[in-house]
Structure formats: structure tokens, C-alpha cells
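SMP-30/Gluconolactonase/LRE-like region domain-containing protein, pasting as requested.
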Amino acid sequence: MYPSFLFSQKIIELGSLPEILSGSSGLEFSKSGNIWTINDHGKPVLYQLTKDSFTINKTVYLNNKIKDWEDLTSDDHGNFYIGDFGNNDNNRTDLKIYIIPDPDSIAEKIYTAKIIRFKLSDQKTFPPPKGKLEFDIEAMIHFNGNIYLFSKSRGNPFKGQIKVYKLTDQPGEHIAQLKDTFYTGEGLMLENWITGATISRQNGILALLSHNKIFFFSCFKGDDFFNGNFEMLPLDHFSQKEAIDFDDTQGTYLITDELTRGILGGKIYSIAIPDSIYNCD
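C-alpha cells follow.
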């Protein structure tokens, strides 16, 4: 499948994230519309941000450890899923997703999450041979009762490989089954590997984020994400973008990036959805 290339749209900087969120790697709206984010390292805390100044309004501490938290998603009931599956070296055998109720509703000072422990169906060696590092996961959505994981390619030569895995959303030990593979094509790794994901259930648009692009998949049937329309949006803005979510109330995407070397990033941004994505003809 060859992509339609969209004209770059201006990404709007909304504000700076609090200093404590220098590693923001997941972004999710609660059912009541509150913004939640996480760091990829440090303390196991979810942070609720105010909508005007993006300061911290509430925190939820988990009685669980962080190894490499990478994404947030939620289901139709408002439950949150926290992906502890970052795997830069492709050698992890302890991949996890933590499950908590809507964090807006949590009053406890420390909450113990339920846990999905899983393995990837196609990974047999830990780590695989050099050049075949295709088992890092940094992006996740919840869709129609299941969790879908999207790989971040570290392959050499780099071909923009994206693997999607399907996983139950129930606690326990499970296998994430490889469902499909997509190639964005050759190019710079930092511009084409996947660092975050979100899906708009209202309009059926899957968005996968890289450091300076968004890859849109739309007009698919069921969960056959990679066999609908594919469009790529250059952001003309390079930073370590790690988190994306769709704002139903505004019809826009929110994006955060990590603070790099104390000078680049650490911001929250907004970008509108290109109108052409809605066209399924």
C-alpha cells in the first residue's frame, strides 16, 4: 500500500509540561474529559493535568514498579491500561500492562493495579540477532474489547516495519498474537519508528506517532487496520514525541514530547485532523 502524503499542518504549542513530567510517554483522556499522562521512568504515578495551564491537578500512585512505561489507553468503561512494555534491547521476558479503573474515581493514596503479563507470539530469542530488533513496543490502543500493540522497529537496514499484536484485556498470563505487519518504507529511523498510538472510536481513525510524523489508517473493516486507507502527515517539527490522544470535544489531537538534554521538548501540542482522512471513497 502506498500512502497519500498530506500537506504538513501547523502543530500548535499549547504550553510546557511540569518539570516532573520530563519523560511524558503516554496521554489519555478520561471519560469525563480530564487529561492524564505518565513518565516512562521513575515513580509509578499517573498525573492529571489541568486543561488551561497543564499543571498537575491530581496524582494516582500505583503499588507497582516501573520498568519502562510507554503508553496509556482506556476502554469504553473508562478503565485505564498502562503499558510497561518498553523494550529497547529486545530482551525483556516480563512485559506487562497494568489495569486500573478510571483514575478520576480513585481516592486511595496508593492503588494496586491488576496485571496482564504477556509474551509476543513471534519472539523466540531474547534478544534476537543484531539487525532484527523488531520487538520493542511503545504504542497501544484498546478497541472493541481487545488491546492492540504496535512495534517500534530497530531493524537494520531500517524498513519502517510496524507489527500489530492482538491481546486480551483480561488480567493473567497471555500471548499477544501477531496479527499483521506494515511497512512505512525506508527513511530515517527517528522519523518513521512508532512511539505512540490512539484511535478515535467515533470516526474510526487510527493514528500512529513518530518524532515528526503521524501515520493515519482509516476506512478499515473490523480490526484490519492496515488494509484501509493510509495517509502520512509530516509535522515539520522534530522532537522526541512519545504520546498522542484524540480530543473528542475539540476534534484535534494532543501530543506531548519528552524533554531532551534539558532544552528540547517537554511541551504539549495540538494539531487538527486533515479533512481528507474522513473520505473513504
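Note for the archive: Residues 4-278 form a domain with the Neuraminidase fold (CATH 2.120.10).
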